[in-house]
Amino acid sequence: MLKSALRSRWATLAVLALMIAIVPLIAPSAFYLRVAALVWIFALAALGLTILMGYAGQVSLGHAGFLGIGAYGVAIGPTHLGLSPLLSLILAAALSGVIAYVVGRPILRLKGYYLAIATLGFGLILALIFQSESAVTGGPDGMAVARLTVFGWRIAGAMQWYWVSAGVLLLGAWIALNIADSPSGRALRALHDSEVAAAGAGVDVAAKKLAAFVAAAIYAAIAGGLLACMNGLITPDAASFMHSVEFVAMVIIGGLGSVLGAVVGAAFLIVLPQALTSLQEYEQAVLGLLIMVFMIALPMGIVPSLRNWLTERLA
Questions:
Q1: Could you give the CA distance from residue 236 to residue 241 in angstroms, rounded to a whole number?
Q2: For residues 260 and 15, what is the distance between their CA atoms, to the nearest angstrom?
Q3: Which GO terms describe its cellular component (predicted)?
């Protein structure tokens, strides 16, 4: 019963809400609140990969491309089309879902390494478009992004962005947890274990994989739109291959298939480099070493490993 309670969606949301409530109490300045807001935004994008990789077992190395669609959507909408940033964000998320549906139908027929390479190619194409179409995207220099306004409230400042990003993350986590506990979520986990067995049990494998891919794309696009609005600027680097790798690393380090794991993984890869800046040229080497140590010591990921340790001690 204890193990079931620890894994319940309400316990997960309660822990996440507690984390969100504590950070402003211990943050010494607005800079740390901005870093925390970055963690929540990147965690939202990682939640999309949790659905795709953790639930459905499908690898994507082009996730940052969908983040770029959302980010450039909120930049292009007001600049070239005269739309509000909020409407642009909604339309960008919808467009990302449509593109994922169209592209995902042929790509998701592939498996394993072939699927990973196909998603990598798709992400590289998007990054190239963002960089080369300077008349629309601003090219390598990027674009300025209008400040997000919601029902007359102009969101500005680290504290406001902290709570906005935290609220969207909580909503995204609630949706992801509900997906996991739904019949569709159980079908995704079935095809994660074995697509052949899932098909034999009556699961529409192609449809479920495509639905997970679309959901992941929408999560990434919303995160990208929030990131662009908070920074006030977007460049092609947001859709780079390395950011896609970082998202995969966040999900795996935190714990594959764990909602809290996506948040912890995002915090690990965003906060830790900030803490290691004093090491200067050794920063990347130490960061890589710490990632190796964590994966060797906690092969299931940080959150599942800690949860198993806790249940064993309290059982």
A1: 11
A2: 8
A3: plasma membrane
In terms of residue numbers, what domain contains 289? 2-314
Q: Which pTM was predicted?
A: 0.92
Q: What is the mean pLDDT of residues 204-226?
A: 94
Q: Which two tokens stand for residue 262?
A: 């996506």
**In the predicted model, what is the mean pLDDT of residues 145-169?**
90
Cα gap 195→203, rounded to integer Å: 9
| Sign of the alpha-carbon torsion through 47, 51, 54, 60 | negative
Rounded Cα distance, 43 and 41, in Å: 5
Of residues 284, 277, 239, 251, the one with CA closest to residue 122: 239
pLDDT, position 2: 43
Reported as a single tens digit per residue, the pLDDT across 230-278 is: 999 999 999 998 899 899 999 999 988 899 999 999 999 898 887 777 7
Within 13 A of 161's CA, how many CA atoms are on the CB side? 26
Rounded mean pLDDT, 169-175: 95
Residue for token pair 């994008």: 45
Q: For the chain, how many structural domains are there in total?
A: 1
Amino acid at 112: G
List 154's β-bridge partners, or say none.
Answer: 149
For the chain, give the mean pLDDT: 89
| Token pair of 103 as six digits | 């592209």
Kindly tell me the sign of the dihedral angle through the C-alpha atoms of 108, 114, 116, 121.
negative
% pLDDT > 70, the chain: 97
Q: What is the pLDDT of residue 100?
A: 95
